[in-house]
Structures are given as structure tokens and as C-alpha cells.
Fold:
Amino acid sequence: MDDLLCGILPLSDEELSAEEAWELQYQHMAEFIRDGVVFSQFEARLADHRAKVVKDMTRSTYERDALTHDRLLHPRQMVNHRGAPVFNLSSAKLLLRNDVEDGKHLHMSPSQLRQTQIAIYCMFGLSEFKRRIYQAVRREKFINWMDDKRQKKYLSQFQKKLLKKQKKKQPEPEAEAEDATKDMEEWRRSRIRSKLVTVFFCLILCHTPSL
Structure:
């Protein structure tokens, strides 16, 4: 999916067929080898992903055109009704995100951090700037939480697939117990047959007149 979104893999089968993509790149990928993906699975998934991406891109283009039209009719104001600059439209937004990612807010007070970029940060009052710091921190925590959740989900799925493969390779405990029971019954039957044969020959010898 990511390769389609990034343009690495063409959306059209005419530009690059599923078979060509499989032979050139994807059959050699460690993830596909590990999960045991075969060409028929790859071909079906690629067709589904291509259809979904084309649908999403068509919808995104429509929404972008509609937004552009609305912005021409109702342009966003760079200042609010009080005449103060809008934080989300200023360069302070991305600059503060970078500062929070670098951990500057952990070693400086809001006032000190505000003084590091006087020309940009000081366009906003201290109370407003504090609120924006807390907002950027919450955003950073949320991103980290989502990344951790994705990693745990991927690890859980990988462990389940690995366990499933191991179960396929190893016989089931119930099957092993059933086989052991069958072996024991067969052994008992062979012992009984052996004893019956012995008894039979003894009877024959006992009733046979001696010469």
C-alpha cells in the first residue's frame, strides 16, 4: 500500500503487471518470504490495493478541488477578530513542534522557550504560548502512543503467525495420544494372539499320541 501511495509501484497494471512486480521485487522481500506469501495471494492483494488507492485518490482530488473553491470564496484570515495572529497559520506552529520533539520544553520554562524565537514566538502572549506548548506535548505523546501500539500489534500478529506455523509442523497432542492408544491396543492384541498360538500348540502336543 505504501509503495502505491508513494508512486514506487504504478497504479496501472499496464505500466507494471503484478507478475513483473512479483518477479522483480516482492518475491524477494523478507516479509513475504517469512509469511509464506505466494504469487496468487500477492496478485489478489495488489489488485485490491490498487482499486482502493485509485478510489481514495479520486475522492481526495474531489475534496481538494471543493476546498480550493471554498477558500477562493471564503479565504482564511491570518488574524482573528481581536487582530491577533492565528497560531495554526503561523510559522510558530511547526517551529514549536520541532522544539518539543527536541525536548527543549523539558529544560526551559515557557517564558525562556518563548525568548528563544522572539520574532516568532513573541507574537503570542505568554498564556497563549503555554497553552500551545501543552498542546504540542499532547500531540507528541499521542504520536508515540500510536507508534507503540502499531509495533505491539505487528509483533502480536507476527507471533500468532509463527505459533500457527509451528502448530502445523508439530502433531497435535490429541493426535499423539490417539496414536499411542492405538499402538498400545495393537501390542495387546499381538500378545493375546501369541498366547493363543502357544496354547493351541500345547493342546495339539497334549493330544498327540506318543510313538
